[in-house]
Amino acid sequence: MASTQVTPTRMELTRLKKKLTTAVKGHRLLKDKRDELMREFLDLVRVNMELRQRVEKDIQSANLNFVLAKSAMSEETLQDALMAPKQEVQLNVGSKNVMSVDIPVFDYTTRTADANDIYSYGFAFTSADLDDAVGSLAEVFPDMLKLAEVEKSCQLMAAEIEKTRRRVNALEHVIIPETQESIRFITMKLDENERSTQVRLMKVKDMMLKEAGYGKKDQ
Amino acid sequence: MYKVAVMGDYDSIYGFATLGLTLLPTDGQTDEEASRTLRVAADSGYGVIYITESLMNRISREIERYDSKLTPAIIAIPGVSGNTGAGIANVKKSVEQAVGSDILFSNS
Prior knowledge:
The complex is a heterodimer. Chain A has helices spanning 10-71, 75-83, 128-211; strands at residues 89-98, 101-110. Chain A contains three helices and two strands, in the order ααββα. Chain A has a two-stranded antiparallel sheet. The mean pLDDT of chain B is 86. The longest helix of chain B is centred in the last third of the chain and has 14 residues, at 86-99. In chain B, α1 (10-13) links the parallel β1 and β2. Chain B has one domain (3-80): Rossmann fold (3-Layer(aba) Sandwich). The interface between A and B is large, with 58 and 39 residues.
């Protein structure tokens, strides 16, 4: 293991101990962050799924209306009718911070306040089916925008959760055990050094006593 | 101030023009050309780009580039030719990425 590469000094030991405290603290914080993000994500992703199913259904029925409308009119009339849209959507993008993840907040304004400006054509030459089709699409749009906001948030949060989970795992299974191992290695090495110094001192003391004539006379 | 665009084959998206969204029809474009259209749109102030599921499958690599950015949000919508399920699959993919496996919608 990496513990064989550490220098067994007191300074290194202090450094490693400090590192371990930071790692443990960081691990706890990141774990909390992951849990909270996960909770928010699971709520949001359920909303996402529900919205998506609804929007898909509504768009499909709107598409059906358009097909109906198209069948009742000539291609040119239809293109003429839709050529110059009166309405324009302007999107305000704000952002909200959820557990250090920036998620978008969409808010839209239309250029004109009149809801009937989506009908950009005279009613004389177009079929009523087209009005229905355009109307049904206009009804879906707020949901579509909400879906965009929620789905983007889910994507961003999923990426952040993955990143956080990796960090938590790396700390839990690699950094912390390795540091603990190194600390144990250094402590043992230092203890061993201390014992060997002790023994050496005792030995020297014995030799000095013997030289001075106080040594044991046996053997 | 951002704008909203819709990408895909003309038949699937032309209705959105009436709502005031920008149309980016990709009829007859190759995958590379469609990717370029998306890239240009993403760089020119579109906050949300709706894209038909069939086109999304074709240029998914280009779309992945915007996954980590706040804007544009690229959102799948069903086209006139039907639903490929790519939108739902995307939601499941997020769950899988976050949780590790799809625990919420695996049976739906």
